[in-house]
Amino acid sequence: MGSKPSSTKKEDIGDHLNLPFLIPKEEFAFHEKLGEGYFGIVTRATWQRSNGSKIPCAVKMIQKWEEKPVEAMGDIRGEISSMQKLKHKNI
User: Could you tell me which residue ranges the Protein kinase domain spans (predicted)?
Assistant: First the structure.
């Protein structure tokens, strides 16, 4: 049997996965849901940067972490790594 991560609160997921590049949710204005999958949902959003600029974007948010097996952390890391390698003007 696998054990759960030591921290299962959604706001602690980035720290638990050692992902310092996650942007705090307080910097976003969220709009409609665009899609949903195993790890969470994607919503249209506006990123309100600290310099005052606003950037339209899509945000993927991990949901119901406490219901995912510990093994899923590797899958999440892999997905994030793959997304970081994408090169497109809209990403």
Answer: 28-91
Number of domains forming the structure of the chain: 1
**Alpha-carbon distance 4 to 71, whole Å?**
9
We report the CATH number of the domain holding residue 46 as 3.30.200.20
Residue 11 lies in a domain: no
Cβ within 8 Å of residue 26, ≥6 positions away? none
Kindly give the confidence (pLDDT) of every residue in the chain, 91 residues in length, as a single tens digit, with 9 standing for 90 and above.
Answer: 444 444 444 344 444 555 556 788 899 999 999 999 877 899 999 999 989 999 999 988 877 666 667 777 778 778 878 878 888 776 6
Q: Is residue 10 part of a domain?
A: no
pTM: 0.62
Domain of residue 37, residue span: 24-85
Binding site, annotated residues for ATP:
60
